[in-house]
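Support request from a user on the community tier.

User writes: "When I paste my structure tokens into the form, the page sometimes reloads and wipes my input. The last time it worked, I copied everything first. Here is what I submitted, just in case something in the input itself triggers the reload:"
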């Protein structure tokens, strides 16, 4: 599993995760090291992201829908939109994932997790480093 976030001018460092995790692990491995610094950066430079407020778009996985997750997000003033987060029309990162997946699958099929992570981050054609 891969977690990422972006705004008009910035992308976070991708977080690679192994299998399912608890909410505590999600907070420790994703939200605290990835999401909170991203939010802090946006608050310091709101003009770069066009003064838009942050909306955290997540799919409807149980870990995202748990009351403890909502409580943590409320504590950190993180807002989530109403609606189907899996829809590519409403969740822009789904379009990025799809484009990356299509481009990568045309090139080759990585045989190890390390090679897959390298391809996602740095391989040419379309990578997270080039995502717009």
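"...and here is what came back when it finally went through:"
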């Amino acid at each position: 599993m891969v977690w990422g976030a972006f705004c008009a001018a910035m992308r976070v460092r991708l977080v690679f995760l192994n299998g399912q995790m608890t909410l505590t692990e999600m907070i420790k491995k994703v939200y605290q090291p990835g999401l909170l610094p991203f939010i802090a950066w946006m608050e310091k430079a709101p003009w770069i992201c066009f003064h838009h407020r942050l909306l955290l778009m997540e799919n409807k996985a149980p870990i995202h829908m748990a009351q403890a997750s909502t409580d943590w997000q409320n504590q950190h003033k993180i807002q989530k939109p109403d609606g189907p987060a899996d829809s590519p029309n409403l969740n822009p990162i789904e379009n990025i994932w799809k484009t990356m997946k299509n481009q990568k699958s045309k090139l080759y099929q990585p045989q190890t997790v390390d090679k897959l992570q390298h391809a996602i981050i740095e391989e040419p054609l379309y990578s997270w480093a080039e995502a717009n």
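Agent notes: The reload is a front-end session timeout and is unrelated to the input. Helices lie at 23-44, 62-65, 67-75, 92-107, 113-121. The radius of gyration is 15 Å. Escalated to web team.
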